[in-house]
Specification:
There is one protein chain. This protein has 276 residues and is mainly beta. The protein has a single domain (5-266), classed as Sandwich (Jelly Rolls). Helices cover 4% and strands 45% of the residues. Strand 12 (129-133) and strand 13 form a beta hairpin. Keywords: Isomerase.
Amino acid sequence: MSTLLSKRTALDAQGRFQCITPESAGWEYVGFEAYSLDEGQSLSFIAGAEEEICLVLVGGHAEVTLNGKSLGKLGDRAEPFEKKKPYSLYITAGDIASLTTTSPLELAVCRAPGKGTFPSRVISPEDVGAEARGVGNNKRYVHNILPDTADADSLLVVEVYTDEGCTSSYPSHKHDTNAPPTETHLEETYYHRLNPSQGFCIQRVYTDNRELDECMAVYDGDVVMVPEGYHPVATIAGYDSYYLNVMAGPIRKWLFTWESGHEWVNSSIYADKHNG
């Protein structure tokens, strides 16, 4: 099995089934955890002195406090395939957030270095930008939870929906070289969900020289780590895909380079073929 694929595990005592740290991933910036919580469970998260956290309520509801002050009940969808925009909570360095679930809750915890530059805040659905990208068999729908235009020190967080039989994160692109304004170095995790849940999708991670070239069958609840290289996703007939991306690096800007051989899929040649 590829070392880039983190399989969903049995729940630990806190309800966690994914735990990726910079140390376990062999990189510097991105940490990711996923929880499946029962109604009535409580958890707290403290952002370290040099850390920031984004909690994404992937599905379900919870009563949330920030530094002991109630933020009320957050959550507006039971599961991600409702395709409603999510509620999230940005936690700046040194702050503490606690939640008590008021329904079953699927929670994603996104971590990266932080300096405490920006205050903690709720990211409501109204704060989340939505856009359709691509055409034909390369179309997907995106929720920009924490894009590079929003306040944060390091974190970039986005969720993507891809219908059965389509590709996404495609044409193949990479962001592993610090060469702004052309490209920035961003580590990335893909937290995958499939609908129906017994399905799978395919993700490939590869570099130009093919020293890294991994192709993985990814199941519901798995995480793919992208330390470098291109990283397209392909769905399988009968199964829709959702994934939550977490990115971070030395420069908080999403600048990437297309793989030249496939960039034509962005062009009118491909679009005309499917719109004609």
